[in-house]
Amino acid sequence: MSFRDAGGPIHMAASATSFALGATVTRSNIPVLCAELAELVRGRAGDVVICDVAGVVHPDVVTVEALARLRLTARRHGWSLVVTGAGPHLLELVRLLGLTDALRQVGRQPEQREEAGGVEEVVDGRDSPR
């Protein structure tokens, strides 16, 4: 399972299992990917699956859906899933869909996540500092 050291990065247990996505993910691939992951972890003591997405050429919403479904599949079998190899486009899609907490990345801290673009704090001049 993944865990944090006092606000530090996610560390992986020694017995992690790897699972990689191919160059293209389609909706029709999702049930097959979930079945493959279930077969990989079924009957084994729960730990962590490291899902490598570095090979995904053009990530889209279907890719994010596949990752979310893979995470659910892993959880149903007592495992957790973390993502590695995500490029900036996939990270942006995950952020836009509000799934950054659900789809954790290996080695990233919460404060390392991308900030929402175009968002600024508005200060009301009538508020006095305390």
UniProtKB/TrEMBL annotation:
Residues 19-103 form the STAS domain. Residues 107-130 are annotated as: Disordered. PROSITE patterns: STAS. It comes from the Bacteria. This is STAS domain-containing protein. It comes from Planotetraspora mira.
